[in-house]
Amino acid sequence: MAHPGEDRQRFASLSDEALFLAYRDGQRAAFDELVARFGCELYNYLRRYIGDPVLAEDAFQQTFLQLHVKKHLYQEGRPLRPWLYTIATNQAIDLLRRQKRHNAASLDADIKDGDGNATSFAASLVAEPTDPLGNLYQEERRLWLRAAVQRLPGHLRAVVIMAYHQGLKQREIAEALNIPVGTVKSRLHAAVQRLGQMWQAEHGASEEIQAAEERSGDDQLEEACE
Question: Were both Cys, which of 27, 82, 99, 163 would link to 111 (CB 3.0–4.6 Å)?
């Protein structure tokens, strides 16, 4: 009989897919390694998506329960990580429908494209500040973004959180949501556009006045913003 430490060492060297196949084939100790490998990542995703740590814990438990129940549905050769996100997302959606709750999310992280290149979401809406007051204003915008994401439709909210928080590549998001990569790109673009419109509607007029005052007081700002 293998020692638990030996099992952990052996399973730790396996790929995600091989590890799950070991669990599906009856090696129960492989489940512990799955939880150790993906537990924090999936919980953090659910917490951000749902916006409530208690409800996220419920969805987390249901995710791994469904992982067990549906283990026979896993297609060998399919990347495991997106499949786990598929299950987690479905559990979050079901829970939100029952609870009629909305989530909060932060958009301070980067998004990776299919090649692994990272770009800032906040930079797609506002310019980077270059002074202390600018930093304070940037923080105000970030706080606004956290609240604004709550008002995004669920299909946009999911891709935003997977991309900007969880660091999934577009092809992984596509697999998790069972949609084409092109749809992922269009939804991310739509989310940026929607948030930009919301920001403009709520802050546009005051920003235009502020910008005019700043230009009249300091011509160098024009060069900094070009």
Answer: 163
Give pTM, 2 decimals: 0.62
Assess contact for 45 and 85: CB atoms under 8 A.
Answer: yes
Number of H helices, E strands in the chain: 10, 2
Establish how many alpha carbons lie within 13 A of residue 112's alpha carbon, considering only the half-sphere containing its beta carbon: 12
The residue to which tokens 């050769």 are assigned? 77
Domains and CATH numbers, the chain: 4-99 (1.10.1740.10), 110-225 (1.10.10.10)
Beta bridge partners of 118: 112
To the nearest 5 percent, what fractions of the chain are helix, strand and coil? 70, 5, 25
CA angle 211, 213, 218 (to 5 degrees): 90
pLDDT in tens, 155-212: 898 998 888 878 899 999 999 999 999 999 999 989 888 888 888 888 765 555 455 5
Could you give the CA distance from residue 142 to residue 145 in angstroms, rounded to a whole number? 5
- Output DSSP code: residue 112: E
pLDDT above 90 (res 150): no
Distances in Å between the alpha carbon of 151 and those of 100, 111, 146, 187? 13, 20, 10, 15
